[in-house]
Write a structure and sequence with these properties.
The chain is built from 13 helices and two strands. The protein is mainly alpha-helical. The chain has a two-stranded antiparallel sheet. The two termini are about 50 Å apart. One of its GO terms (biological process) is regulation of protein localization to membrane.
């Protein structure tokens, strides 16, 4: 599910409450995109901060008759793990998101590195020795008149001689890379296979709107009980002061 789809679904479901706090979810998607693009973000910490902020805002909404300062809200966060307002979703989703995003970013980065290596190898200049030997082999009598000639009388170098020569003289650098390159390819194949199954990012992102919505509803259903427990932990909050109504338009 895209960010736009998520926004539409939550806007339809939660209306003005979502509109008032949509920045929380916008930040979550921004952090996911940022990690995918540059990998500089601590994804686990970013997801924890998302749930912490969502938790505080929901707690305030569920207890709108009270006034909470920053210290009080920080106290509620200290007990969040104990309260489990969103059930087990935060722990599960953080692990799944981190695992999938790390894997897909690693795969994309590895493809780029592999492409850069191939470009470098292709652009390696041919040595003078290699050029001279190839030129001399093209005039080999056995290649011209032997059974290796093609029907069009095009010079064909003996395969065994050619391969031996190429490996030792022209492709020494490539030959040295061969073992590591094969290992790289095998690792990429294994990772690609995991990206289709356990690390499949689409399987994580597609239902994220449903998972987060279920977590929010879980908090709503247990809001009174959780709030009372937090009042016991952090102290009884004070009621908001009612604004005086002024009926005089002037």
């Amino acid at each position: 599910m895209s960010h736009a789809d998520f926004h539409r679904m939550f806007s339809d479901t939660y209306g003005i409450l979502y509109d008032r706090h949509s920045f929380i979810f916008n930040n979550m998607f921004h952090n996911l995109e940022q990690y995918y693009n540059d990998g500089q973000l601590d994804l686990t910490m970013a997801m924890k901060e998302f749930f912490n902020l969502l938790y505080k805002k929901m707690f305030e909404e569920l207890n709108a008759q009270y006034a909470f300062d920053a210290n009080y809200l920080n106290c509620t966060v200290e007990h969040m793990e104990e309260m489990m307002p969103f059930g087990e979703l935060p722990q599960k989703l953080i692990v799944q998101v981190r695992r999938s995003f790390v894997a897909i970013r690693t795969f994309v980065q590895a493809l780029r590195y592999g492409s850069d290596i191939l470009k470098t190898i292709i652009e390696l200049p041919t040595s003078t020795t290699c050029e001279n030997r190839l030129h001399s082999l093209s005039y080999c009598y056995g290649c011209i008149n032997g059974h290796h000639s093609t029907a069009n009388n095009v010079n064909v170098i003996c395969q065994s001689t050619c391969m031996n020569f190429l490996e030792k003289c022209c492709l020494q650098c490539h030959n040295n890379l061969n073992k590591e390159w094969n290992k790289y390819l095998n690792d990429m194949i294994r990772l690609a296979s995991r990206l289709k199954t356990s690390f499949n990012i689409e399987h994580i992102v597609s239902p994220i709107h449903i998972q987060i919505s279920d977590a929010i509803m879980n908090f709503q259903e247990n809001g009174r009980t959780i709030s009372q427990r937090l009042f016991n932990k952090c102290g009884r909050p004070v009621h908001r002061k009612r604004e005086k109504r002024n009926d005089n338009p002037y």
